[in-house]
Design a protein that fits this description.
Helices cover 34% and strands 25% of the residues. With 244 residues, it is of the alpha+beta class. The protein has 2 domains: 86 residues; 124 residues, no CATH class. The strands form 7 sheets. It has a 5-stranded antiparallel beta sheet with strand order 14-5-6-16-15, with no helix packed on it. A 3-stranded antiparallel beta sheet has the order 11-12-13, with no helix packed on it. A two-stranded antiparallel ribbon has the order 1-2. The longest helix is centred in the N-terminal third of the chain and has 45 residues.
């Protein structure tokens, strides 16, 4: 009889230990999810004023692997009056020639370099239909379909392209996207609308993101408290088992 009771006690102890381990694993996974969520929200808030910034949507699969999907919804245009500022009021991307190759962006904050070429903030040429755009005159006007006029003369047209699907567009630094498909996938945006003297704002909502950050922080604190409780209960269970 004594042997049966001992075996049963050991079984109960193992069962409790397994249950504790399972609960701790669940809590740890929940904590990691909240950490990743907090990281994404922090990045959104850091880019609240970044022209043309696109927020990310965080999701997890059945094995808790995190996936980020870019939300390409269009941000509101903000009037700046800048001579070379342009906002896209439709789908599409400007093309920029970088040392790594052509990159795509919604950031239309452009400048003139010393060679009077239109460039982005990094000094990389913004592409027109005939390559980099050079302006000879002083007065600049860009119409709704991207034609660039210098002192009333047509200099070129901004190369604005779109893609049938965005799942092969990958975020890079400087608010650029790299396209991992075939360059031949480029299409002309439907209903192209360019707003001269304006910039597209980020498509994230600061108040919403701040609310999510507070919720995420509270959830993370609750999970930490739960993990400490589980750890304490596990310690007490081990002490009782040792005493027996």
């Amino acid at each position: 009889m004594l042997q049966i009771r001992c075996a049963k006690a050991e079984f109960v102890t193992i069962e409790k230990g397994f249950h504790m381990l399972l609960e701790m694993t669940r809590a740890t996974q929940a904590g990691l999810r909240q950490e990743k969520q907090y990281e994404v929200i922090s990045n959104h808030l850091a880019n609240a004023s970044t022209t043309g910034f696109k927020k990310d949507v965080l999701s997890f699969d059945q094995v808790m692997k995190a996936t980020l999907t870019t939300d390409f919804s269009i941000g509101d245009p903000q009037i700046t009056g800048g001579k070379l500022d342009v906002a896209l009021g439709s789908k599409g991307f400007f093309k920029v020639e970088t040392p790594q190759g052509v990159r795509y962006t919604r950031n239309g904050n452009f400048f003139l370099n010393t060679d009077r070429q239109i460039v982005n903030a990094k000094g990389y040429p913004v592409l027109g239909e005939n390559g980099p755009i050079t302006l000879e005159g002083k007065d600049v006007f860009i119409n709704e379909i991207g034609q660039v006029f210098s002192d009333g003369a047509l200099a070129d047209r901004l190369s604005v392209v779109d893609f049938p699907a965005y799942n092969q567009l990958v975020k890079e630094g400087d608010n650029n996207f790299r396209y991992e498909g075939n360059a031949g996938d480029e299409t002309a945006p439907q209903g192209l609308r360019i707003i001269h003297g304006a910039l597209e704002s980020s498509n994230m909502n600061v108040i919403y993101e701040m609310t999510k950050m507070i919720e995420s922080h509270r959830m993370y604190e609750s999970i930490n408290k739960m993990m400490r409780t589980i750890d304490e209960l596990d310690g007490e269970a081990n002490t009782m088992a040792t005493a027996d």
